[in-house]
């Protein structure tokens, strides 16, 4: 979920410093007193370690009194919870093996967006093994979990998000923006494969939504670059990326803040009256050229003016209407406009859940989206990074890309996404546009089209969090993607 911030700031230079290429030395497990907790270390990378606690296995269930993870989260499969430790930084993750064929099904890393939002929202509201009940005190099995078809881990990043934390206040998350986070993700994957070498034979995908349109292209591109220089043995078997309702390019997507509330492109519009909309349409062109100026001359004075103008003229009228930012068909009620987000927050703040999910005592009280981390990304102007070139590079290097968009989202909507992919500078662009114009295909959830390695899927009537609104269709789309089949 992307937080509501006027997101048109100063361009930031991309740091492409590579991690040291020293191969990992022999790893070893060190058992703690709790037999289900293991710490994986690397002699050549003393700054990194992986703390892993298994659940769902026999050893994990030998625990006096307290609830097991499966009690708390019905439908959970075997797996692990734990932390990637990097100096003072501790990244939380929860892993569940596939309900189908864990030894063959793909490995998927799921990331929520924000920036600053926890992937626990993905786990407990969208596609994890269980869904939190409205009372916020219990959860029920999610029959349409994406773990039906894949081994999935949910990772809280950067530091300061969800259950991830730093023991050093000044080494807080977000400060380095998307590019800094990519190095931690890469380290995490290297440690993962060292700990679980059997998962190396599985195709690996990174999936996520919203600000994932920034994270995922950059992280995947970083993995690709590292693969180019890594020995065969150390390569990460990245196969595809999946991005739902993403934010890729502010200049391409800003104008859609007019289309969604002021036209009937969603089938339930227009939502704002013509007085308001006439004023908005006049602002579109000016907003676009101010943003273009900010990209060309990334001076804070220009960019702040662009941010203020575009936010005021194009975002505020919708926000003031009282509708949900993530689903135009609903009112904005509850935390982040969803009553269920209050339930998720309440649930994840209980001791029984923290304990069963192996959350460190030092981790902060759960919040769905950290405003502090969001502000740090703003400070380093991460929002104006255009991630289209990273997506193009992925496609050119043979990585499959699935873009899916719920049509009722406002904040990262389908009109903006279609402008992004209709202008993506890659060799498949002419054919992609031809398919978009002439060859849209029907499927149970809406329309889709594809060219080469790029597939674009509309999910009708879904908001920003597609698996929450359309669980059956979302799972179908996810499965057919991994099976490399057409959608029907
Ligand atoms: C905390 O982090 C800051 C910035 O990275 C560093 O300068 C400082 O030495 C760290 N303090 C400790 C106690 O590790
Ligand atoms: C908007 O589109 C829907 C679906 O095509 C249609 O039923 C509805 O009448 C339209 N509304 C307006 C105001 O044109
Ligand atoms: C249009 O909507 C705005 C904002 O809700 C409101 O202030 C204004 O009175 C409306 N105008 C008309 C003509 O309905």
Automatic annotation (TrEMBL):
EC code: 3.4.16.-
Q: Which InterPro entries match?
A: AB_hydrolase_fold, Peptidase_S10, Ser_caboxypep_his_AS, Ser_caboxypep_ser_AS
Q: Which GO terms describe its cellular component?
A: fungal-type vacuole
Q: Which GO terms describe its biological process?
A: proteolysis
Under the heading Pfam families, the entry gives: Peptidase_S10 (PF00450)
- For the region Disordered, give the residue spans: 45-66
Give the Polar residues compositional bias ranges.
Answer: 51-66
Gene Ontology molecular function: serine-type carboxypeptidase activity
Query: What are the protein's UniProt keywords?
Result: Carboxypeptidase, Glycoprotein, Hydrolase, Protease, Signal
State the superkingdom.
Eukaryota
Q: Where is the signal peptide?
A: 1-20
Q: Which family does it belong to?
A: Belongs to the peptidase S10 family.
Q: What is this protein called?
A: Carboxypeptidase
Q: Which organism is it from?
A: Hyphodiscus hymeniophilus
Give the organism's phylogenetic lineage. Eukaryota, Fungi, Dikarya, Ascomycota, Pezizomycotina
